[in-house]
Fold Polysaccharide biosynthesis protein.
Amino acid sequence: MGSKLLRGTFILTLGTLISKVLGILYVIPFYAIIGGDEPALLYNFGYVPYQLFLSIATAGIPLAVAKYIAKYNAMEEYAVGRRLFKTGVYLMIFSGIVCFLAMYGLAPTLARMQQLEGGYSLADGIQVIRAVSFALLIIPVMSLLRGFFQGYNSMGPSAVSQVLEQVVRIMFLLAGTFIVMYVLDGNVVTAISIATFSAFVGAFASLLLLLWYFYKRKPGLDRMLLEDRGTVKISIPTLYKDIILSAIPFIIVGSATSLYQLIDQFTLGRVLEYIGITPELVNSYVAIINFDVQKLIMIPGTLAIAFSMALVPLVTGAYVRKEYAQVKRQLNDVFQILLFLTIPACFGIAMLARPLFTVFFSPSDNGTALLQLFAPIAILFSLFSVSAAVLQGIDEQRFTVLGLLLGLLAKSVLQMPLIMLFEAKGSIIATGIGYAVSCIFMLLIIKKYVRFSFKVILRRTVLFFGMTALMGLVVIALYIMMSNFVSTDRKIPALMITIVCGGVGAIFYGYMAFKLHLSDKLFGPRGTRLREKLRIR
């Protein structure tokens, strides 16, 4: 695997993984403070429209800027990349202010459009939506700075700023909700409003760190301008046009998860009530699918996000230089490593769904069943993210939009009949079919335009599934044995089962990879050196 891609992916994966793990772990004390599932519904009530407005506010411009900076740097036109960045800053400030005002002002309409469960009033929903809207003032500019560094293949600032943003957000969230609930003796709505406002506080801390990185590295970036070829002259209007046209696919693809969640938010509760499910069970299903499960399945999805962020500028640079063989090598490596890691991770989550759900939330038969069904869909989400990044890197981003729209159409058409057939599980099945449709379409487009063969990847995928099945036999046997002595319905014992079974499964899978010399083929000399250090022949 290319050293730049491997290093960049590792740095971004580490930063994103730490951020996501923190984003899951805080749920345990947060639930304890606010009192369980129903307040979490109100929290998610504000976050779903916020995610959509955030996608509109950033409009895919940070990744578009990263792509174009990489493109012009490959042409040694460094000044054009700098002008793109400056132009993007003004655009992000403007869009952030406009989207903040729109979300704040439209809060009553947004609250009425959604189905607010748990006995909360319309005014409660409006308050929560408005509290989270303030983050829109900061995050667009912050995201642009991350895109700027990624365009220079510098992933460190993005990774560190993600971790800082999450740490500050969680500290403010937990401290704020605790003070409201137990020191000031306030109500849940105020506590949830503080929790959603924490997005602004975390983003502000991240922005300050990124500005520090920028001014620290500015002398080196300025020296690159002295080596500028100066043969490309682009007007400001043309720059704006290029950024916006390139950003449209990024915004649409970046909104994929939010759009799928919105379909669930608008339809899941209503259809379940229509077929006679009790209001209490409806509330539980909606909270599990739109909040609980989403948190857990994003752990394997982290790798796909990191690959996507590292892949776009690298593929763009190689494609601009017409290094098509290099592009094919990068794609071959990325798809294989992605599947090598996500397949066992997703099925591992499915196998340990019961103790995982107990550790992070509370013992739940429904939560366990829904997580078991949803976990493998993270494989499709990972493929979707990386396939979209590839198409954007080779300037065929129009197909990413079409692929997503086909998936959303499949989800929308199948949502109601599948829920009527399988209750809440039907919504998850519809999501899986939607992502599968998108993935198949985009992979066929990649095959056509890059002239890329998936034969080796398909053979390796069969091998990865076989290795995962063997790992599963070991994990399930150990899980059954431990559950005879340790309860999966109590947090500490469930955590112990998760760590032991998950750890043994990971070691067994890793041993098989080393024994079959897959580590050598996937990770090159690094994998070989590690295998030899472990004395596995």
Summary: The chain is about 85% helix and 0% strand. Residues 304 and 339 are 10 Å apart (CA to CA).
